[in-house]
Amino acid sequence: MPLSPKIHAFFDEPTNTVSYLIVDPATKEAAIIDPVLDYDHHSGKASTASADAILAKIQLEGLHIALILETHAHADHLSGAPYIKLKTGAQVGIGEHIREVQKIFRPVFNAIDVSGEGSEFDLLLKDGERLSLGGLEIKVLHTPGHTPACVVYQIGDAVFVGDTLFMPDYGTARADFPGGSARQLYHSIKRILALEPETRLFMCHDYKAPGRESYEWETTVGEQRAKNPHIHDGITEEDFVAMREARDATLTAPVLLLPSIQVNIRAGNMPPPDSNGISYLKIPVTLLPSTQT
pTM for this one? Predict the structure, then answer.
């Protein structure tokens, strides 16, 4: 029987993101999944309040942070990984296919400093790779579709699904970002849902489905298979792809898409500063042809 981790969730309401502190109770070794850097898009100011809340819990419990794990290069929040790495010395890991994501977005932002080889991260994780966390084992599963680099982390009876799935009453992640694929997403989700029905699934986001009053982020494989309207048992691959592509065509870009991608493909670091010592985030501008005659 695999050991179960102790799990602390930290919800960031401005970005609807859940970060997790995963603890081996026997050794007090711990990992953090998907930490958030607080960023105000209107002012360009960033703060570390969300990361500091995690660090306070670490200090209170006397934990040693060994790993900071990203499920993917997020498009809706900036990563707090560099700050936590500075405070703890932990290594930052992400799926090895981050190389593809860097190569997609490097020309978009003319980000010539971005390696395209993932060298900004300490660990590039392969499908099936296993990491030790005290007496716990972390298994990495490559789950492309939302982005080419998405991974989930299986730790005992808990799986941290990133942006593949939402709560059963909300559905599944979009697949229309560059490098995304609704067909790949279907197969990635089915891989997760092939696990034992009682396997606990922990979401990266929650938006409160209509009629639900509280935020939630824990469910099970069994609940997803029975209740998720996008991917429950009986939904075929063609059904899913048609639904997902039609739905994605109606969605607008996330508010923090442009700043998030620029920072997160750099492992959470800001772009190199200009000669005045200030880092700037770029906004590529596309001039659309006039519709006037």
Answer: 0.95
